[in-house]
Amino acid sequence: MRNVIIIYTILLLASCAATEKFPVSTVTPAADITVAKKKDKNNNYNIDVTARNLASVERIAPSKKAYVVWIVTKNEGIKNVGQMIVKNAKTSSLKSLTAFDFNEVFITVEEQGDIRYPQGTEISRVILKK
């Protein structure tokens, strides 16, 4: 009985989050990037972007200062949800919370992370199926 409860709990948790893999980027082809979206009990949306083998922003031509994650909201247009944080040479991530529902996520390389609209080169974009 305990095993059934554990399996049910895992399936329930997995069904609550939408996870997608970004397509291979022509700008950073070695990068393996995923995004997870999950609605919380307060009707906000958690967004978790993880990138492995993402080239440092200084290596992008022309050199920039930050990877910025954007969402395309269902009613409020494009919103900046934050900068990717480089944990080490192999892993970068962003964990953020937004009140806006969204179905599309994209990443750009920018001169600064706190801009209101994307201006730099787009790295990759994914549409969430859930």
Task: Map the helices and strands.
Layout: H1 2-16, E1 17-21, E2 32-39, E3 45-52, E4 66-73, E5 78-83, E6 85-86, E7 91-98, E8 102-110, E9 121-127
Antiparallel strand pairs: 1-2, 2-3, 3-7, 4-5, 4-8, 6-7, 8-9
Structural summary, described in words:
By secondary structure, the protein is mainly β. The protein has one domain (18-127). It contains one helix and nine strands; from the N terminus they run H-E-E-E-E-E-E-E-E-E. The protein has one helix spanning 2-16; strands spanning 17-21, 32-39, 45-52, 66-73, 78-83, 85-86, 91-98, 102-110, 121-127. A five-stranded antiparallel β-sheet has the order 1-2-3-7-6. A hairpin with a 5-residue loop joins strand 2 and strand 3. The longest helix has 15 residues, at 2-16. The protein is globular, with a radius of gyration of 16 Å. It starts with a helix and ends with a strand. Residues 2-15 have low confidence and may be disordered.
Quick recap of the structure?
With 130 residues, the chain is mainly β.
Low-confidence stretches: 2-15
Percent of residues in beta strands? over 45%
Q: Helix amount, in percent?
A: 10-25%
**Separation, N- and C-terminal Cα atoms:** 31 Å
Number of domains: 1
Structural class: mainly beta
Mean pLDDT: 87
Number of helices: 1
General form: globular
Main sheet specs? 5 strands, antiparallel
Strand order of the largest sheet: 1-2-3-7-6
Rg measurement, Å: 16 Å
In N-to-C order, the SSE pattern is: HEEEEEEEEE
What is the number of strand segments? 9
